[in-house]
Amino acid sequence: MHVKIKINGKIYERDVEPRLLLTHFIRDVAGLTGTHIGCETSICGACTVLANGLAVKSCTMFAVQSDGADVVTIEGMAKDGQLHPLQEGFWEEHGLQCGYCTPGMIMCSHQLLSRNASPSETEIREALGGNLCRCTGYQNIVKAVQYASRKLRLAPKVAAGD
Amino acid sequence: MTQRYVGQAMKRKEDPRLVSGTSTYVDDVVLPGMLYMAVTRSMHAHARIKRVDTSRAQKLPGVVAVVTGEEVAHCGPIPCAASLPNMKRALRHLLAMNKVRFVGEPIAAVVAENKYIARDAADLVEIDYEPLPVVVDPEKAMDPASPRLYEEFSDNIAFNFFFESGNTEEAFKKADVIVKERFINQRLAPITMEPRGVVAAYRMPDNELVVWCSTQTPHGLRTLLANMLQVPENQTRVIAPEVGGGFGCKVDLYAEDGLVGYLAKKTGRPVKWIEGRRENIAATIHGRDQIDDVELALKKDGTILGMRVKAIADLGAFLSFFTPMIPTLTGLLAPGCYKVPALKFDQVGVLTNKMATDAYRGAGRPEATYLIERIMDVAAQKLKIDPAEIRRKNFPQPSEFPFKTSGGVIYDSANYEAALDRALEKADYKGLRRKQGQLRKQGKYMGIGLSSYVEICSAGPSHAVGGGGWEAGTVRVERTGKVSVLTGVSPHGQGQETSFAQIVADEFGIEPDDVVTIHGDTGRVPSGIGTFGSRGTSVGGTAVYLAVQDLKEKMKKIAAHLLESTADKIEFGIGKLLVKGNSGRSINFNDVVTVAYNAVRLPPGTEPGLEATRFFEPSNFTFPFGTHVCVVEIDEETGEPKITKYVAVDDCGNVINPLLVEGQIHGGLVQGIGQALHEEVVYDENGQLLTGSLMDYAIPRAHDFPEFELDRTVTPSPVNPLGLKGVGEAGTIGSTPAVVNAIVDALAPFGITHIDMPVRSEKVWRILKGRKAS
Ligand code: FES
Ligand code: FES
Questions:
Q1: Which of A41, B61, B381, B672 stands 20 to 30 A from B247 (CA)?
Q2: Confidence (pLDDT) at B1
């Protein structure tokens, strides 16, 4: 089946098997390997991307379902060599160790901050409930999101992914 | 030397590539013409294989090859590094032949043009099984009448590990009180967020093999793969690119590693295999799984006289790389941080129809800490002594170190009481007890749990670690003054690219940005062992530190020659070497480097270049310690034990980067708490895995925790020149008993003296339902 998906502003067009997962389209067709796969069964959140502005687990969607979608992945977060405040926050606050969960965490946090500019600690922890991290113990991930939330409120123009 | 960077919370050098999605994990490696492997696995826990029919799989368009057991039999069994007296070498092959012994055991491997076809084809391999009686319960497996996993062995007992130090019989005779309890450390799955993965490429004319593997031990893997695949070791290269978590489970050589290498050789094309999560839970090693029957003999005042432990370690179906060694560590550490004058430890390692156990974060020490920290609380409850005081009473004093324990090891240095006091103060222990009393009167159940732990790190002296416990480090000052560090440890989240840069920068008086640490590639790093057993910085960092010292000596000689002084009068300043005292005579670091390479003005007899390699063999392990305080509140409606406060005071000796130490503790705590509250690998009586996905195997989530309150005491280790003790596993080891102690404390008014892990809401709810508080 023929699909056309925009990823980080660039159009990718391809004939694909109907069963091809969006996450494999992103990784294997577009060659964007920053989106990780940790379970393929929509539990771990490592594959989270933005599709039409919403955080989705890209292993839950088929590429054909995403035909025409506007997708943003971790590679689309930095602008002009400048890290997005969320990426900066994870770096500043030691919000990652092995880094495998990090892209998914960042994309999911992005949705949270776009809906709630100054979430409480509990709200952050709840919002990240579908993203698993086995290394950090989550505490510094919470701090990373708080860092980004502060920074984005001060400079709201650094809106992410667009 | 001025310390400008060691001890500072420096941001990590490795992070920019990781937060931007540009780093390379194994699954990101793509080679021209690459094939994909999928594995057909056993559906039975114990069965004879009567027939494997690969014809349908072979015929599927896009399938390139299908292999079964006989074809790879010549690769030999997968080795185990451990050797215990009379140990039965229950080893597996790359693919099962004749018989399968656990659900998920590889039977056939398929390679195809893409991963979808490979998986389809793996499902088309047809297997006729003749089911055999399944042995799941380790206690039943020990029965001589039990069905045997290996017909060639007389029973399912893989090893016995026994020792007695002091006179336990006497101790128990003299005791005022004896407490006993059975403690079960349930089976856990490591669940690295990145599953395992391998890519191999083979160049026939050169007989050269390159392997990318998500491993903690690239050099060890190279040796094993070279032997197994008959490729010379010096023509085998193993690369551990970015590795998405290890926790011990990526130390082993797995069947799939060998298969990918074999198939790359066979097909002449690169082959990739990436583990699915279901495969990961079924066929990556498990951790723990030990039953400990513990008896403690005490005087009325709480003084410990002796301890007896009978331990059953469920090893699963075969011996993986370290399998039998891990449970024996429980024996060495069984006395915990107490004076236990007499100890009898009697352990059996048992084979059952489950995945093998091996090192999972903590590896044998969480079991020890859990048994001693729980039995201390059982004793305190019985003797009506405060849990903090019974601990304090039995600590060895700082002046008694190095302290030889009845577990047979020598603790390097400690001040247990200082860590306990700091934790009690930080948690406001007295205030908590008051609050607990008030809440109880209102019918609310809050519990306070302590855990004073010690653990064994910096693996270790070579005689105690199969395959060598040393570590290698090469340091090269390049012609431009930039420094390359090549380390044999293979970090995968621990941050040694940063901490090693801090060490080297301070030693040379240069900037961390000028130091690059290269790791995880046998083609670039000459020699090494790897990252496990909390050894990365304390053993690997020490090797680097020693290599730097060699270079400093050489640079001092060169500087002395140029400054017309003597080497003993030269010291390193910031960016320069100078003559001691206010002589005003100095030479820039980079100028010395230039002279070393231009090799014209060198002192007579000095070789050009600035490169040094050192191997560090530790004289002993190191023994970090600390005290954790956990507070739980029990939700009466649901039984949910909710952690409302968690204080951890840890002592890992000197600290290079507090940010990294804190991160290790946080992650460790969550894994340890995960064991206490949620996690358990469950097999049913037929050996079927009931927790085969992340839906059924619950790892902790962000909202399960309060904010952890951390603090440290600092007791340097005398074992290495940097005074480091290691911190990778401390959080996991210390936390589990603190949580369970807190829950038992909360439920004490109901007459509860013990509750088994994982303590899920349902378990507590059932207890509350049936009882009235007194
Ligand atoms: S890989 Fe998509 S949620 Fe885990
Ligand atoms: S940083 Fe390793 S899984 Fe989150």
A1: A41
A2: 65
Looking at the CA of A100, name the nearest ligand.
Answer: 2
Same domain? For B504 and B592 the reply is: yes
What is the C-alpha to C-alpha distance for residues B494 and B536, in angstroms, rounded to an integer?
Answer: 8
Distance CA B597, CA B599 (A): 5
CA gap B76, B97 in Å, rounded: 12
Q: What is the pLDDT of residues B513-555, one digit of tens each?
A: 999 999 999 999 999 999 999 999 999 999 999 999 999 999 9
Instruction: Give the Cα separation of B18 and A105 in Å (integer).
Output: 12
- Strand, coil or helix: what is B116? helix
Residue A162 pLDDT > 80: no
* Measured torsion, CA atoms of residues B408, B409, B410, B413, in degrees rounded to the nearest 10: -130
Q: Rounded distance, CA B515 to CA B331, Å?
A: 42
Question: B666 vs A102: CB contact, 8 Å cut-off?
Answer: no
Is the model's pLDDT at B213 over the cut of 60?
A: yes
Option in B15, B276, B693 nearest A96 (CB) = B15
Identify which of B19, B24, B666 has the shortest CB distance to residue A106: B19
CATH value of A2-75 in 3.40.50.2300, 1.10.565.10, 3.10.20.30, 3.10.310.40 = 3.10.20.30
Q: Which residue of A has its CA nearest to B193?
A: A38
- How many domains is chain B built from? 3
pLDDT tens by residue, B428-461: 999 999 999 999 999 999 999 999 999 999 988 9
According to the model, what pLDDT value does residue A108 have? 98
Name the DSSP class of B537: I
Assembly ipTM: 0.97
Q: Which of A17, A74, A122 sits opposite B21 (nearest CB)?
A: A74
* B265 and B297 assigned to the same domain: no
Span B619-663, pLDDT tens digits: 999 999 999 999 999 998 999 999 999 999 999 999 999 999 999
User: Residues B26-50: what's their mean pLDDT?
Assistant: 98
Q: In this complex, is the C-beta atom of A155 within 8 Å of any C-beta atom belonging to chain B?
A: no
Let me know whether B577 and B442 are in one domain: no
Instruction: Give φ, ψ of B64 to 5 degrees.
Output: -105, -40
Decide if A41 touches B, using CB distance below 8 A.
Answer: yes
Pocket perturbation via mutation, ligand 2, pick of A136, A138, A140, A143 by most ligand atoms within 8 A of CB: A136
Where do the domains of chain A lie? 2-75, 85-155
User: Which residue minimizes the CA distance to atom 4 of ligand 2?
Assistant: A133
Average pLDDT over residues B100-113: 98
> Confidence class of residue A157 from pLDDT cuts 50, 70 and 90?
low
Which neighbouring-strand residues pair with B131? B47
**Mean pLDDT, chain B, whole residue set:** 97
Pocket test for ligand 2, best of A96, A108, A128, A131 (most atoms within 8 A of CB): A96
Which helix or strand (DSSP H or E) is residue A72 part of?
strand A70-72
What the block records as the tokens of B153 is: 């062995």
User: Would residue B162 count as lying in a domain?
Assistant: no
Are B193 and A73 an interchain contact pair (Cβ–Cβ within 8 Å)? no
The ligand 1 atom at the shortest distance from the C-alpha of residue A59 is 2
Q: Which residue of B has its CA nearest to A85?
A: B19
What pLDDT band is residue A160 in, cutting at 50, 70 and 90?
Answer: very low
CB contact A81 to B (< 8 Å):
no
Q: Are B740 and B701 in contact (CB under 8 A)?
A: no
CATH code for the domain defined by A85-155: 1.10.150.120
- Shortest CB distance from A138 goes to which of B27, B694, B702? B702
Is A119 part of the contact surface with chain B (CB cutoff 8 Å)?
no
Ligand 2 atom with minimal separation from the B192 CA: 3
Does the pLDDT value for residue B465 go beyond 90? no
For residues B602 and B598, what is the distance between their CA atoms, to the nearest angstrom?
Answer: 9
